[in-house]
Amino acid sequence: MAAESAGVEAAANAGLVVVSALCVLCSYRAIRGPTVPDRVVALDAIATNVVAIAVLFALRTGRGLFVTVSLVLAIIGFLSTVTVAKYITEGSIIERRE
């Protein structure tokens, strides 16, 4: 049992390092652009990576609360990406009917 636990913890640690590095690379793309859609995709990738970090941290510590946090972050990330994409394509978020 101890060998399995050590293996899972090592894999979670390695995953945390990789996903953190990906967040840094995505933040470069979010800052530099060159276009607004590039920035939106980079921010969406950062949100996905933060969800992965929360799940890996939950796996590493054995606390289920972080899984719930990751689900909430995933929902917020999805909604914000859809909202920004609609704003970019249509120019407004809420349609007015007259």
Features:
single chain, mainly alpha, 0% strand
Radius of gyration: 17 Å
Assembly context of the chains: single chain
Helices and strands, in N-to-C order? HHH
Amount of beta strand: under 5%
Question: Helicity range of the residues?
Answer: over 70%
Total helices: the number is 3
Q: Note the gap between the termini.
A: 66 Å
The total domain count is 1
- Helix- and strand-based class? mainly alpha
| Largest sheet report | none
By DSSP, the count of extended strands is 0
- Assign an overall shape: elongated
Mean pLDDT: 88
Low-confidence stretches: none
Question: Would you mind describing this structure in some detail?
Answer:
The protein is an all-alpha fold. It has one domain. It has three helices and no strands.
How would you sum up this structure in a few lines?
This protein is mainly α. It has three helices and no strands. It has one domain.
SSE topology sketch:
Layout: H1 2-32, H2 36-61, H3 65-90
